[in-house]
Amino acid sequence: MQDSSCPLCGANASRYTLESLNGYRYSCPNCAGEFEIGRGANTRAERGELHSQIPSQVKAFIAQGKVPRIEFEAGSGSFTVISDVQKA
Questions:
Q1: How much is the average pLDDT of 16-44?
Q2: Can you tell me the distance from the alpha carbon of 11 to that of 78, in angstroms, rounded to the nearest whole number?
Q3: Contact, 70 vs 35, CB < 8 A?
Q4: 77/73 Cα distance (integer angstroms)
Q5: Which of 15, 69, 73, 80 could make a disulfide contact with 36, Cβ separation 3.0–4.6 Å?
Q6: Residue 36, SS3 per DSSP
Q7: What pTM was computed for the model?
Q8: Strand 78-82 relative to strand 33-37: parallel, antiparallel, unpaired?
Q9: For 40-77, how does the pLDDT look when each residue is reduced to its tens digit (9 = 90+)?
């Protein structure tokens, strides 16, 4: 784990690189849990390009005890939130 800024809220968070999937898993106390984000989505989030509804969608899934994942679809230029990577 390494210290990092949360791509959703900007708070101090911990993250590690996923071994089996493309991206990172974040643990953010401010977002109240863990979530995953693909590399492309993370890069765009770091540049401030994350769509405004994504943080609330992710936090809602976390509140339900899920571990959501944010993906960026380059072809369409859109973000997708997978509700729970534990059930994928």
A1: 93
A2: 24
A3: yes
A4: 6
A5: 69
A6: strand
A7: 0.91
A8: unpaired
A9: 999 999 999 999 999 999 999 999 999 999 999 989 98
